[in-house]
Amino acid sequence: MKTTSLRWGFFGAGKCTHDFVSALKLLPLDHHKVVGIASRDSNKAEDFAEKLGIEQAFGNYSELAESDNVDIIYIGTVNSEHFHQAKLALLHGKHVLCEKPVCINRAQVEELVAIAKDKDLFFMEGFWTFFFPATRKLLEEIKQGSIGKVVQMTVEIGNKFYHLDRFSRKDIGGGTLLNHGVYGLMFAHQIFGQPSSISASGIISASGTDESVAITLTYRDTAQIASIICSSKVNMPGELRVIGTQGMLKLKFPFWAPTILETPTETLQFDLPLNLEAIKFNNLNSSGFTYEAETVRQCILNGWRECPIVGWNASRAVMGVADEVRRQLGIVFPHDNNTLHASEICADKGQRA
């Protein structure tokens, strides 16, 4: 990248991509520039480009990956496409920000990390939650010991989304675990590291995807535990609680895009970035994508190939735990290619980022 402006290309013309592109408009144009959108449907790409003022529309992903006008590609397609599309972008010399889950199993993550290392490119899983000021403050409070020794983390996330393809279709890596549960898994990793044991139970839908899941992660050496409950059948509180010997920290709904943190002594409100143009977003607090986007830009300007907030070890570890949960539930995706097996859950112990 020759200038300080990061030139973005996008795979997928869905709601998440719409919100990310819209959020970039809240940032300085000389820092972020949207130059291309790709979709398998050329008409959809052209319509998307026209509505959001994007320079170029592509009817296939390869053309965008080959473009010399793009520095980084954001991937906002369905779960099963992430691995192949991230690989395509990396092999064409593009930095990659891929929406969570970055892949559908750990083996795929390992391959992408190897390619990023070999090509000397930035590669990150798009866990936007961890760039919100409220989340940064939560982790800071834990580190400073404001609630004493952390004993437990609990989170419940659920919406009546079972009718949506990304929750009901097994062939695209659907289900509540990879769409909802991974938020809790990443929080557990950031707070505790790798668990010593994983226990999971769940309800499998008629289509073969997980519709309700309860996960318990145990950390025997430190006497800590994380409880994660997710569902695509019912609405849940959408709050995250971290409980210590001297109090509790709580990220209020929506904890995955948080603006309110309750501490033992006060309630902190973190305002979202100003939306002076009254840009309309599809999802709650989507202007918060700006936090993630600007961090990615700073990483690339500094020559970093992974982000210290959500690094490669974190993505490996979380996907390894998700693999083990799916193994216990008996869920195998068509794209697993016999790679799903009992995780070496202690392999990365202590490596949180």
What does this protein structure show overall?
This protein has 2 domains: 6-129, Rossmann fold (3-Layer(aba) Sandwich); 130-283 and 312-336, Dihydrodipicolinate Reductase, domain 2. Strand 9 and strand 10 form a beta hairpin. It contains 10 helices and 14 strands. The chain has an 8-stranded mixed sheet, covered by helices on one side. Strands 3-2-1-4-5-6 form a 6-stranded parallel sheet, with helices on both faces. It is α/β, with parallel strands linked by helices and 353 residues long. Keywords: Oxidoreductase.
At a glance:
This protein is of the alpha/beta class and 353 residues long.
Q: Top keywords for this entry?
A:
alpha/beta; 353 residues; 10 helices; disordered C terminus; 14 strands; Dihydrodipicolinate Reductase, domain 2; Rossmann fold
